[in-house]
Specification:
Blueprint: H1 2-5, H2 16-32, H3 36-50, H4 58-74
């Protein structure tokens, strides 16, 4: 799954809508595998893209911010 989520192009407009969700999923996979630094990397990239997301997605943004805070505190 990591390879597939990593295959999205940052330059293709059609794929750009998938980038933030793919970054989030990659972070989740790395977190589940205990690879916390990699998880933080992808969570931060997700947040950089979605920090100002529309109101319906702000809870997801807050959840990811909480994950980042938790992972930073454990390292």
């Amino acid at each position: 799954a990591l390879a597939w989520f990593g295959s999205f192009s940052w330059t293709e407009p059609v794929e750009s809508v998938f980038l933030a969700p793919a970054l989030l999923r990659r972070g989740e996979i790395h977190e589940r595998r205990g690879e916390y630094q990699q998880a933080l990397h992808f969570y931060r990239r997700f947040l950089a893209r979605w920090r100002n997301a529309d109101p319906p997605y702000q809870q997801l943004v807050r959840d990811v911010e909480a994950r980042v805070a938790r992972l930073q505190g454990s390292g």
